[in-house]
Specification:
heterodimer, A: 321 residues, Rossmann fold, 7-stranded parallel β-sheet, 5-stranded parallel β-sheet, 12 helices, 12 strands, 15% strand, elongated, B: Rossmann fold
């Protein structure tokens, strides 16, 4: 029996490519050449399935241009904003993604951002590397304590709940703002807030874990920042669009926000230049899920989903219209 | 009744010096740097100080103690470590010496866990890339870190800071092992596994965090031989003392890949640390700021003042270096 043909649009972790090559007649992109939606459609000639990445825009036109042989698209991501799901469904193409498996790595990233921002760690790192460390002083690089403080989580989904679990080990009390209250089993003692008015003033540390999109665009704006306790710490490992950059930069300058840790930005990989000159921000290049273990798990999950679709089964990670 | 006379010889947070000024007849040093030993002795005599508050920038040795005014009853260091104090000389001179244990455990454990995450998640490389302007796509298989959750953490030393570290690790679903001379009671162990032999623990440790004092028994305990016992690609965290580590061996392990990364807040020489570390991408280096939060630094200063107040009012010190 011949293996189904799988187009892999970009370089993926070795273990994932190895498994793709084993289970499929895989067309890999060894040079890691960027692909447009039109490229994908052209390269998919004769393919049964496509494993794509968020950089490729598979809009209605690209979907319409796909050959009839394509029955499944797997995306190496949780998000699927880059795929026109309705257009795919109309053509009978199933789409699957990588939910759940990167929750832990992303929550770890958020905890790193919180700790590093609060404790001025990256500022200290630069000072040491530059050879500017002149001695120990009780007043040098003093940051904000984390243990025992109040952590506010905007969006208590899977990642937010993982973060809450980690934060409890640091003796933090957890508050959350969400559209509705979660069952107690999922809350694990976290305090629900239905409004900004009660939520924001308790956030010694605020971590964003809400979805992106128009409904939350610029959520962290000047008005909301003003309601945080003075000297709060802000972390964002979710979506860059949640933050009004100009407002956050102004607050980092004024001291209303003591420090911020960011893994995601508006207009990646360009980011607001105002961040680059600030000492009190920790900046990571959108690598919240970037652990070997997580990336491998993402790849295996999406390969399993594609294989299930091609075998006529419905995978658990099928994206529903 | 006149207030007792105190010399504050180091630069301390405002909340601490404010309290010192309110409760004591305090001579508070101002300036760009802490007092030198000569300045401190001179100021203490001029002020007829009964107490001196200092940090580890002052070597409180036999010569300095001999130069202190005869009425000096207590030297309080605003630190946990007391490598800078000649305990025998102080004792012989009848000067009580105290430190500030117990108030910085949580803060130091926070910092140690931050270093663990920063090392595992390549925070130095990522930050450097960002400060250089980013602007390029990072492939799905590129610049990957290693996951922390669910892995095994070994602790050298299971005192208050080690136990605080273990509590944080459990929030990440980590399995916790520890080596200490004596096994802890179960309520302090909280499920951690004791290894009577340090070496026997190492093959299990994807992460190793040091929380032991530097003593003749622990000096250089992390060396070429013990690093080789760790699984390949392990991560080392040190917020305890630089003297625990053979830095040549550590540099070799970081270069060879035996260690994936290290997070270091302490070094053999501070602040003049071995600059070969600065050339490595896979280290996260911080300038001995494990206890550096406002709340903790204030608490340390207050604890030192509590010790001074206790002794000068005729009571026993709270944190004497000897009993």
């Amino acid at each position: 029996m011949t293996k189904p043909v799988l187009l892999v649009t970009r370089r993926l972790p070795e273990a994932v490519e190895a498994r793709a090559a084993q289970a499929f007649d895989a067309r890999l992109n060894e040079a890691d050449t960027p692909r447009s939606g039109a490229d994908v459609a052209r390269l998919a000639a004769g393919a049964d399935a496509i494993l794509c990445c968020p950089a490729e825009k598979l809009d209605a036109a690209a979907i319409a241009a796909l050959p009839a042989s394509v029955r499944a698209i797997g995306t190496f991501s949780v998000g699927f904003d880059h795929i026109d799901i309705a257009a795919a469904a109309a053509r009978g193409i199933a789409v699957c993604n990588t939910p759940d498996v990167l929750s832990v790595a992303t929550a770890e990233c958020a905890m790193l951002l919180i700790l590093a921002a609060a404790r001025r760690a990256v500022e200290g790192e630069r000072l040491v590397r530059a050879g500017l460390w002149t001695g120990w002083a009780p007043t040098q690089l003093i940051g904000t304590g984390v243990s025992g403080r109040r952590l506010g989580i905007f969006g208590l989904g899977r990642i937010g709940r993982e973060l809450a679990r980690m934060a409890r080990g640091f003796g933090m009390t957890v508050h959350y703002l969400d559209q509705q209250r979660l069952p107690e089993a999922l809350e694990q003692g976290a305090v629900f807030h239905a409004s900004d008015a009660s939520f924001l003033p308790v956030c010694d540390v605020l971590s964003l874990h809400a979805p992106g999109g128009e409904g939350t665009r610029g959520w962290l704006n000047a008005e909301r920042i003003a309601r945080l306790p003075r000297g709060a710490v802000v972390a964002n490992a979710a979506r860059g669009t949640l933050v009004d950059d100009a407002a956050l930069i102004a607050a980092l300058r004024s001291g209303q926000v003591a420090a911020a840790g960011l893994d995601v930005y508006n207009n990646e990989p360009a980011l607001h230049p105002g961040y680059l000159g600030l000492e009190n921000v920790v900046l990571l290049p959108h690598l919240g899920s970037a652990t070997r273990e997580t990336r491998d798990a993402m790849g295996f999950l999406v390969l399993d989903g594609i294989a299930a679709v091609l075998a006529g089964r419905e995978p658990g990670n099928l994206v529903r219209v | 009744m006149p207030k007792p006379r105190l010399l504050v010889a180091a630069l301390l947070p405002d909340a601490v010096t404010d309290r010192a000024a309110a409760e004591f007849d305090a001579l508070i040093h101002r300036g760009a740097n802490d007092m030198t030993a000569a300045e401190a002795a001179c100021a203490a005599r001029a002020h007829a100080a009964q107490a001196i508050l200092f940090v580890n920038t002052l070597r409180f040795d036999a010569a300095v103690i001999a130069a202190m005014p005869p009425g000096l009853r207590i030297g309080a260091t605003c630190s946990v470590g007391f490598d800078h104090i000649d305990v025998d000389a102080a004792r012989a001179a009848g000067v009580i010496v105290t430190n500030t244990p117990g108030v910085l455990d949580e803060c130091t454990a926070d910092f140690a866990f931050m270093l663990l995450l920063a090392a595992a998640r390549r925070a130095h490389e990522y930050d450097a890339l960002m400060r250089a302007g980013w602007g390029f796509r990072i492939g799905q298989g590129d610049m990957l870190g290693i996951r922390v959750s669910g892995q095994t953490l070994g602790l050298l030393g299971m005192g208050r800071i080690g136990r605080a570290m273990a509590r944080r690790a459990r929030g990440f679903g980590m399995r916790v092992l520890y080596h200490a001379r004596h096994r802890l009671p179960p309520e302090d162990e909280e499920g951690a596994t004791w290894f009577p032999e340090f070496r026997a623990m190492l093959p299990h440790c994807r992460f190793l965090s040091l929380h032991a004092p530097s003593t003749p028994a622990t000096a250089g305990i992390v060396n070429a031989e013990t690093l080789a016992l760790l699984p390949r690609g392990a991560v080392l965290v040190n917020t305890a003392r630089g003297g625990l580590v053979d830095e040549d061996a550590l540099l070799a392990a970081l270069t060879s890949g035996q260690l994936f990364a290290a997070g270091l807040d302490v070094f053999r020489d501070e602040p003049g640390y071995d600059r070969r570390f600065a050339a490595l991408p896979n280290v996260f280096l911080t300038p001995h700021i494990g206890s550096g939060s406002v709340e903790t630094r204030n608490a340390m200063g207050f604890r030192a003042l509590d010790n001074i107040a206790a002794v000068l009012s005729g009571g026993a010190p709270i944190d004497p270096l000897w009993r």
